[in-house]
Amino acid sequence: NFQPAARVTRIKPSPSVAAAARAKELKAAGKDIVDMTVGEPDFDTPDSVKAVGIAAIEAGDTKYTPVNGTPALRKAIRNRMAQRTGITYGDDQISVGGGAKQIIFVALMASVDNDAEVIIPAPYWVSYPDMVLANEGKPVIVSCPESDGFKLSAEALEAAITPKTRWLILNAPSNPTGAAYSDSELKALADVLDRHPHVWVMTDEIYDEIWFEDRPLSSIVKVAPHLADRIFVVNGVSKSYAMTGWRIGYGVGPAPLIGAINKLQSQMSSCPASMSQAAAAAAMEGDQSFITDCVKVYKQRRDFAVASINAIPELSCSTPSGAFYLYPNCSGVIGKVTPEGKTIENDLDFVLYLLDSGVAAIHGAAYGLSPHFRISTATSTDLVEEACRRIAAACAALK
Ligand code: PLP
């Protein structure tokens, strides 16, 4: 007769984690499935980084660390942030946690209650709305259609702000679209924020290294440094260095917010794993050629997959500027009938049909913008090719 707390009944399990688990189960049961749900690099953590983790364990670096991370990790974070933003963050402006996911959750826990509003541009990373709900906030979803490049406009931001707005969450390059804001787009958002000093910005930059454009990736903290006292930057090592299982993420921003986060962390986890912190610091401070090599491969897969999807008459796909996902539009399959006689009413029906056709993907409704579906290219190049073949065959079989 366990009764979960209201914060649990308000939320749902992560749809992307659930879809990945379903694909794994079907594969384990012997079904031939190409899993395009994965949200983690298919590459292994670089050997040089693993070696630092192993050496840390052997050297007895196996104890609690300060709540806000080891000095070595903090230094690596400070150096990287200074390099990318020109801002030098002090020790009281850095928090570390068990992945960017935990940092975002704790930042919301530290700042949101009593139905405070959090503006979330859609399509969004599946976890933001549920994290806001779990922490007694109110997600305010703002639809950002493909015709706007899946990006929040200044007008839409202005219209969404109320006296109860606490945060605007930005995520670029975006999961699921790979879209990213230009300097001028961010300046326009910053102009709106200038008029609303009670609104803070959480900018989730976890995919910032997976970037395909010739121009540098922009960030609101670079474009509007005068807003730094209400910008919280989130990042981590999971995606850039293929370190998802090491669980290290970080957030930098105003000292009062960081203090509140660290106070919660001191009661929640004490600190992330000591050996993971050593490995993460080494990854950030060491040779960065691993990233360049991975990005080259992600870009080849992106180009192949975008071209393949766009060659399918019922689908269309804009080209992501970063990250390792595609978010094709599937409006052309809505209303069509599968060989089994089922009408495809929405993007969930379509991904279930794709699953029957041997491809696991995630439906757009989970990201707040339909009709779309997300496929990940963080899987081997051969599998990306096979998935595209299967999607094309599945679409061709629709009537
Ligand atoms: N933010 C976004 C947009 C993500 O896609 C993810 C992972 O899927 C995370 C944050 C969390 O990353 P981690 O907790 O592994 O650092």
TrEMBL record:
What name goes with this protein? Aminotransferase
Ranges for domain Aminotransferase class I/classII large come to: 31-391
Family per similarity comment: Belongs to the class-I pyridoxal-phosphate-dependent aminotransferase family.
How does this chain assemble? Answer: Homodimer.
Enzyme category, top tier: transferase
Which cofactor names does the annotation list?
pyridoxal 5'-phosphate
Q: Name one GO biological process term.
A: amino acid metabolic process
PROSITE patterns, per the entry:
AA_TRANSFER_CLASS_1
Query: Sorted alphabetically, which keywords does the UniProt record give?
Result: Aminotransferase, Pyridoxal phosphate, Transferase
* Alphabetical list of CDD domains matching this protein: AAT_like
Which catalysed reactions does the entry list for this protein?
Answer: L-aspartate + 2-oxoglutarate = oxaloacetate + L-glutamate
Q: Per its UniProt record, what PANTHER family does this chain match? A: ASPARTATE AMINOTRANSFERASE (PTHR46383)
E.C. numbers: 2.6.1.-
Indicate the transmembrane segments per the record: none
Domain of life of the source: Bacteria
Q: Which GO terms describe its molecular function?
A: L-aspartate:2-oxoglutarate aminotransferase activity; pyridoxal phosphate binding
- Flavoprotein in keyword set: no
| Matches recorded under NCBIfam families | PRK06107.1 (NF004769)
> Do the record's keywords include Transmembrane?
no
